[in-house]
Amino acid sequence: MKTFELHESGVRSYCRSFPVVFKQARGAELITRDGKTYIDFLAGAGTLNYGHNHPVLKQALLEYITHDGLTHGLDMYSEAKERFLETFDRLILKPRNMSYLMQFTGPTGTNAVEAALKLARKVTGRNNVISFTNGFHGCSIGALAATGNQHHRGAAGVPLTDVSRMPYANYFGDKVNTIAMMDKLLEDPSSGVDKPAAVIVEVVQGEGGLNAASAEWVRKLEKLCRKHDMLLIVDDIQAGCGRTGTFFSFEEMGIKPDMITLSKSLSGFGLPFAMVLLRKELDQWAPGEHNGTFRGNNHAFVTAAAALEHFWQDDSFAQSVRAKGKRIADGMHKIVRRYGPDSLFVKGRGMMIGISCPDGDVAAAICRHAFENGLVIETSGAHSEVVKCLCPLVISEEQIDKAMSILDKAFAAVMSSQTREQAG
Ligand SMILES: *Cc1c(COP(=O)(O)O)cnc(C)c1O
């Protein structure tokens, strides 16, 4: 561990929760250099939906490299890009009756968010954007302005402007209609809310604590956008690519976003890759107006196309995700009933679910205990109070059951010491 502590910036974070050196990874497992195996319930914060080193994607990439396929080519036409464009349209957009152009941005999620926000402002000629409480959209300045998290915002060093923060679904409980609240603010010319270019929203808030908006809320949000002439940007960087049991997190809600941002699991292999889907009419970019050396990533084009071919030809993969999501939810509900029916609860949707704990200390203690027993799992939420399951979607039922039993033991140990503390 010395090398890291000596040479690497203090900004490193996840490694602090899991202070071991990993050497290999396969499927839903991480293996340290000492040969210890962990089940991976973090999965690159949702980047490894198809697991580590999926053999089909790996083979596609190896063949591509063996034949000297282009690695980098700015945004020039490559066969790899052509194949991805064609495959994404054929297997994802067309069957869902969706029609979008694809913009490849710099390779991280925040790059896609920056591009979407910039385009929304350019097209509408307005500065302001609505984003939501507990939303997370990335750490570069434009995206950070839309992000809620104070820890991240605090490091900006410049004012984070041109965003109006609105309460997310159920932010004030299920009795307060936050859509009606926004409607009133937007209708009132003297509310002080400048007319927004766009609304950016996560349908399930990943970093914000697995808050899942209802279909009804999301549909009403779309209506609100149409009524007030605001573009609707769905940030599906974490919740997309199958995580909630459909390719897009909003698929069964019947909405038509103006733009969609994708990254994390889009390459399928953990390679950096990000994309904005935009309605044709919005494509008002001049050539190169939004630029970047790493727009598109040919290796990612290859693995992404292979992932689509392998997993998204029909509904069987999505069905398996829904079944596994239910298995995990059942396990979590059991834990809640056993150790804290009054203080714990299950949050989230599909395979993006977790257990909300009384506070961040309890959640951190549970993750520590789980790690000691072979499970890599992290927290999310405003107070880091949610123990969050983001395991690869390809995980086996046996691995799920093993992970749930590790979690069960962790909750047993931590919740009983909690009770003792309260009694004493
Ligand atoms: C992770 C994430 C981002 C930022 O992606 P980076 O690759 O870390 O820049 C943006 N939006 C959402 C919803 C995310 O989960």
Features of this protein?
2 domains; Ectoine_EctB; seven-stranded mixed beta sheet; Aspartate Aminotransferase, domain 1; Diaminobutyrate--2-oxoglutarate transaminase; 40% helix; diaminobutyrate-2-oxoglutarate transaminase activity; four-stranded mixed beta sheet; pyridoxal phosphate binding; 15% strand; pyridoxal phosphate; binds pyridoxal-5'-phosphate; Aspartate Aminotransferase, domain 2; 424 residues; globular; alpha/beta
Task: Summarize the structure in words.
The chain is α/β, with parallel strands linked by helices. It has two domains: 2-54 and 315-423, Aspartate Aminotransferase, domain 1 (Alpha-Beta Complex); 57-311, Aspartate Aminotransferase, domain 2 (3-Layer(aba) Sandwich). 40% of the residues lie in helices and 15% in strands. The chain has helices at residues 2-7, 14-17, 43-46, 55-66, 79-93, 109-124, 141-146, 150-153, 178-187, 215-227, 298-311, 316-339, 360-372, 397-423, and strands at 22-26, 29-32, 37-40, 101-104, 129-132, 163-166, 198-201, 204-205, 211-212, 231-235, 259-262, 275-278, 345-349, 352-356, 375-376, 378-380, 386-389. The protein has a seven-stranded mixed β-sheet. Strands 1-2-3-15 form a four-stranded mixed β-sheet. The protein has a four-stranded antiparallel β-sheet with strand order 13-14-17-16. A hairpin with a 5-residue loop joins strand 8 (204-205) and strand 9. Helix 4 packs antiparallel against helix 11 and helix 13 (360-372) packs across helix 14. The protein is globular and about 60 Å long. The two termini are 38 Å apart. The mean pLDDT is 97. Bound molecules: pyridoxal-5'-phosphate (PLP). Pyridoxal-5'-phosphate is lined by residues 108-110, 113, 136-138, 202, 206-207, 235, 237-238, 263-264.
